[in-house]
Amino acid sequence: KVLPENQPIWPVPRSFSHGEGTEKIILAPNFQIKVQSSASSPPVALAPDSILAKAIARCMDRLQVKRNTTIWTATDVPVADITETTPTLAELTLIVDDTQAKLEYGMVESYAVNIGNQHAGNTFTQIVVATKAAGLTNAAQPNNQLEIPNTPWSIYDEPRFSHRGILVDTSRNYIGVPDIIRTLDAMAVVKLNVFHWHVLDQQTYPLVSKAFPDLTAKGAQTPEKIYTPQDVAAIIQHGAERGIRVLPEFDSPGHAASWGRAYPNLTVCLDALPHSTYAAEPPAGQLDPLEPFTYTVLDTLVKEWSGQFPDSQAHVGGDEVNMNCWKSSKRLSDYIANENHRAAYEKAIMPFVDTQPDDTKATRTMKGRQSGEDKLLELYLDRIFAMFIAQGKRPIVWEEMALEHNVRLPSSAIIQVWKNAINAKKVIAQGRPVILSSSEFWYLDCGAGQWLIGSQAPSWCKHANWQRIYSYALTDGMTEEEQKMVYGGEICMWGEQTDSSNLDSNVWPRSAAAAEVLWSGTKDPKGHARPLLDASRRLSSVRERLVQMGVKAAPMFPSWCAKHPEACLTEE
Amino acid sequence: MIHAFYSISAAVALVSNVFLLSLLISPDPHPAGVQAAIWPKPAYACQGHRTVQVSSKFNFELAQDAHPRLVEGAARFRNRIFNSDFVSPVPLGAEDIEAEDRSQVGMLMLESLAVDVEDRTGNAALGLGIDESYRLAIAYDEDLNTEFELDAKLCKQIAKEPFGPGFKGILKAKTIYGALHGLETFAQLVTNNPHDGTKEIAQTPLLIHDRPLFPHRGVLLDTSRNFLSMMSLYRTIDAMAMNKFNVFHWHIVDSPSFPIVLDDQLAGEADEHAGDASGGETENVEGTGDNEEYVYKERKHTKLSAAQPNLPLSQLAAKGAFSDKMVYTKKEITDFVDYAMDRGIRVIPEVDMPGHAWSWSQAFPEITTCLDGFPSYSRFSAEPPSGQLNPVHSKTYQVIQGVYDQVLPLFKDKFAHGGADEVNFNCWNATASVTKMMERKHIPRNKEGFDKILNGFTERQHEMLRQAGKRPIVWEEPLLAHNLATIKENKDIVIQVWTSAENIKKTVRQGYDVITGSADYWYMDCGFGDWLGNWTMGKSWCGYSSWQKAYSFNPLQGLNSKESKKVLGGEALLWGEQVDNTNLDSKLWPRASAVAEVLWSGNSDDSSTGLWDGRKQNKNTLRIIEALDRINEHRFRMEAENILAEPLQPLWCVKNPGHCNWPILDTRPEDLAK
Question: Is Hydrolase set as a keyword in this record (chain B) (predicted)?
Fold first, then answer.
């Protein structure tokens, strides 16, 4: 069952029904939206700066834009003429069960929409039942039409996965605050709800710390290319108003050369050459896990971050830790190689953490003997996890921590899988929940050629067009129990070859394809794959909507195909 | 396998380059070239080590009767220089000003640049092969002979000279177009002092002798697959001028849309053209009951007798454009052509035919064949929608003539592109009017037979082009795939090679001038996945060309010197299937800049002399490491001029030259020098 061509809702709702005839409703000129806490209660007076009031205002603004413009590709579907007897919709009633719901993983985002089911002369009253505040922003979206064809409509919708994100890397190249704001606006259109902010990495440290301002003063690329506390607060607020969590990534202990610009003794192998020996990409540099000062800085930074970012989860990084880097330090290689010296080294940093991370259930990722390298890594991890957990944050780490190192991880840790799709099951087999971002499907940066100089080689990973992205069946081949361990996924915009100039066209509309996978799943409720023709028609409409909003979403195909999607299929 | 081969061989070449460079020029890691990262690199340059300040009263001294194009150009460059606050993120430029020198003698001031153009009044028409050379000197008066000839002795001498009076700037060019290139170079030389915002030129005295390797240096944009706004096209011209491109190949009409707004043609209006234009006899044959008129031309140089009928040509755009806003009016086109020519850029139109012609069908269904081939469009065309012009219908030629009569005069260039790519014989073979005519004429329905039909069409089309004063350019297929008689008989037709670089040699050996730019290197649209709607594993048919790959292409590879002369140049081609206003800039720039430099001054340095001669590039080594810093700077320079060129690397790499090399080269130039 697919949506009618003149209602290209994206992502497709969980279930819906609509009139099959030509019946429709037009929006009254004085159309308004009000809020009630139940069907029988009186309207609620909203504070003008409340999330709901702002969402309603935005919805009304979008209606106004729609009144003034048309999307040229809109499929020409015959609709009945508007006559004197065409009913009008004067009012939309939002019934919100819980206006205080917290924005967090697992929040209820479901909503129901009923339009035109209750006759009252020529005027209909639309009833929207949304269970929680966060669902509301979404509920308003499918109904932005000035006329609502195929009435009556009945929709019940809820997301397949609770964690639906985009990763944006602002360290390789700086992304301006307005660009991030615009990305959040676009995310809201397709019901994505996590902005994974990969804010720090090898190349730059653009996030201003009050306690350690030199990290940015010396670690940012220019004095302008930074994020001030005000910028961060504005981004978090903008996301929260759209039901989007801002999830920062504290990438460590690898990918930390930028920390060393201000504090060289925090890092080892800084700028070591050849970089390919010491790091995945230049410049090399990792945090020094045996340096007491490392933990002095971390302890303060984790507290500062936790105060800044309200989300109850925090990404701790953990990708691509390079043991050659650590071994290039006498002290660290000594620790790795010589068991007898370990206690002495550990004593030096003992004051920082002397307990295990979150609970007694923390478990090693592998059976068997632990290597000296992993002992060193675990020493670091115990401390960084404990610091975040003490601040009430549930940690997320990249898959290497679970699959490539034998280290102790908190039982609450969530693992983000990126290397390939099949690793999801391996992590789940350890009893750990996952967020999926396989680079085989959901790396938006792939395919733009090698950016290191002296090679005409293609990228290490292939370009994924929207159809490839759309085909990422996150839970295929999993048992029901395994599926429950999939918290969701993220599509990743790594920044080596992306900045403000091409962010939009690299991210959109391809991320919308991921959004539908995450919200609606790759299969319909009967287990059939969703037809690509229907998806292509609806996605091209989303793309036009994004362009109209000022998001430079790339064209999917020649414009001719937007009008004739059925003619632009590959023969098989 | 192929990729592995490329990377290894390129890497080996580069290693040797690094060693040679370091031996010659250590310890300075950025020796050759002009200090501000001029892009494309000038053919010859030498410079000293002093910084001169550009006075706030600076002006260009032009002749009293200078051509308005030059006068306006100079004003434009002055605005650009003085309105720019661009500071390069690449640490190459003006920061090495020697403080002691400044305090001792103060800053040298450059008050003016004298612009001396031999063809002062601009009589030389902008066209293929016009002299685009220039010579730029910012030096002491006494060093400059009248031609300020460059030689190693002078270069050595100016490098050592102390500060003193008599410093001046002179730009000499044969034509105003050479002068415009010189002004672009001058504008790139001027940098903003990041401390006080003053305008400076580093590494003076300097002498530049510059001229392009190739006369045809183009960018192709496709405005039929997706619409590009006039603003996008104007911005592209601005960017092209910054890269010394000189041809805008406008692939304006293709199958998906017909975006040119034409006027209806009234009966008799076109008679004067019809008289000599067609040159072919039309033979009218009774139809098959559809009342169709079949035409096939057998003899040449006879008159087309029929008077032109009423042709509602306005309907081509009214029905064939994507919307009434996604069109170009004649006024918009002529204004655009003027704008481009003001910047030394020729505009060459391509109304593609006889394939790629679905868009004509909405107004004139009777002149098109095999429309809407879905679900089997691939039998009839390379991509949807299928549709070709009907070669045996007389009205086809009337409509083409009508379109040409209105379109060709809008473009002032002596060349017009006739298209002729991907003509699909299955399409014609499935068209009753075509096959019936072939049967009547005993033309076999095999490749030879259809080649004959295509030859008749092409001959007639080219006669119309020539009648309008245009020399035809065609894609490679009419020669290489169809061996058309009319191409064989007219060696002045320019062949544009696109399927593979190997076809360059085949084409020049048959004696044709060639435009290069094939899908294996210079297709800027490749690599973004299949755009057709139900194929999740779909790759592009051609691989992505990174700037490094684009830069590695030498259009003269494997040609002898005589053959090399037949290579007019090349084009960076951006087909429009997945490109519109949203991503045009980032798909095109700065990768097309890599193409620009290859076409202007080649991709290799002569490391034995320090002076670089692009003509010898086969013997030399790819200069990609040196080019990287300049193209990185050029990318940010374009961005500062509102061209949304995309980043090539993390900004850290841009700011730390030499630190982001492919592992085999993973050593800093300064380390190598030790």
Answer: yes
